[in-house]
Specification:
Helices cover 88% and strands 0% of the residues. It contains 9 helices and no strands.
C-alpha cells in the first residue's frame, strides 16, 4: 500500500467521495435511465464491503483498544436507526417539504461519512482503506438518490443538481476535515470507542439502508455484486493477515 500520512489518506478518500457523488449527480442529470439501473449494483457492492469490514476487522480492533467498544457500536447503530426514523416520519409531508427534509437527512448522513474517514484512518490505514472503498462506491448511488429526491420535491433539474452537490458531495470532505484535528488527538482507548461507534454506523448503513433499498429495485446479478463486495473486503483483510 502506498506510504502516505494519515491526513493525506483521509483527504484522498473524502475528496474522492465528493467526486464520485458528483459523477452520480451528473449521470442521472444526463442519463437518468442508466443511472437508476446502475445505482443498484453500486449499492449492493458497497453494502458487501461495508458489512464485511466492520465484522471481520474493524470491530475486533475496536474491542482490542477498548473493551466497551461493543456498547459504542450499539450506540452508533441506534443513532442511525432513530435519526433515520425521525427523518422518515418528517417526510410524510407535502412535496417540497419531502424534498427538503430528505435532503437534510442525506446532508447529515454525508457529514457523518466524513467523520468516519477521520476515525477509521486514525485507527488503521487498512481499516480506513476498507471502509473507504465501500463508502466511496456508495456515493454514486447517493448522488443519484439525492438528485431524484430533489426533483420529486418539485425543484428544476438545474437547481436539483446544484443543491445535490452541496448537500451530498461537499458535506463528506467537510465532515472529514472538521473532525480530523479532534480525532487525531484522541488516545487509544477513546479512539477504540469512536471506532466502535463507526462500526455501528457502517453496519446500519449496509444492512438497514443500502441492501433494503437495493432489494426494492433488485436487478439481475445484484446479489453477485453484493458477494463481490464481500469477497473483495475479505481478500484484502486475509492478504494483510498472511
Amino acid at each position: 500500500m502506498i506510504e502516505l500520512n494519515t491526513f493525506t489518506w483521509v483527504a484522498v478518500f473524502a475528496i474522492s467521495a465528493a467526486i464520485i457523488n458528483s459523477i452520480g449527480i451528473f449521470t442521472v442529470y444526463k442519463k437518468k435511465r442508466w443511472a437508476e439501473k446502475a445505482k443498484t449494483y453500486f449499492m449492493c457492492f458497497a453494502a458487501g464491503v461495508l458489512i464485511s469490514t466492520p465484522l471481520t476487522f474493524a470491530f475486533p480492533q475496536a474491542v482490542e483498544k477498548n473493551s466497551y467498544a461493543g456498547f459504542a457500536a450499539l450506540i452508533g447503530f441506534l443513532f442511525m436507526f432513530f435519526s433515520n426514523k425521525i427523518i422518515k416520519q418528517r417526510t410524510k409531508q407535502k412535496t417540497l417539504a419531502f424534498g427538503i427534509t430528505a435532503a437534510e437527512g442525506i446532508a447529515i448522513h454525508s457529514f457523518v461519512d466524513g467523520i468516519i474517514y477521520a476515525v477509521t484512518f486514525n485507527v488503521s490505514i487498512l481499516i480506513g482503506f476498507l471502509a473507504g472503498i465501500g463508502l466511496v462506491i456508495h456515493e454514486f448511488a447517493e448522488g443519484v438518490i439525492t438528485f431524484s429526491l430533489l426533483i420529486k420535491g418539485g425543484l428544476s433539474k438545474k437547481k436539483s443538481a446544484i443543491f445535490a452537490f452541496f448537500i451530498a458531495a461537499i458535506t463528506t470532505p467537510l465532515g472529514a476535515f472538521i473532525a480530523y484535528p479532534f480525532v487525531s488527538r484522541l488516545n487509544s482507548s477513546v479512539l477504540g470507542l469512536t471506532l466502535g461507534f463507526s462500526v455501528g454506523v457502517l453496519i446500519y448503513l449496509s444492512a438497514s439502508h443500502l441492501l433494503p433499498e437495493a432489494i426494492e429495485y433488485e436487478k439481475e446479478h445484484s446479489s453477485w455484486a453484493f458477494l463481490a463486495g464481500v469477497v473483495l473486503a475479505l481478500l484484502i483483510v486475509i492478504t494483510k493477515m498472511i
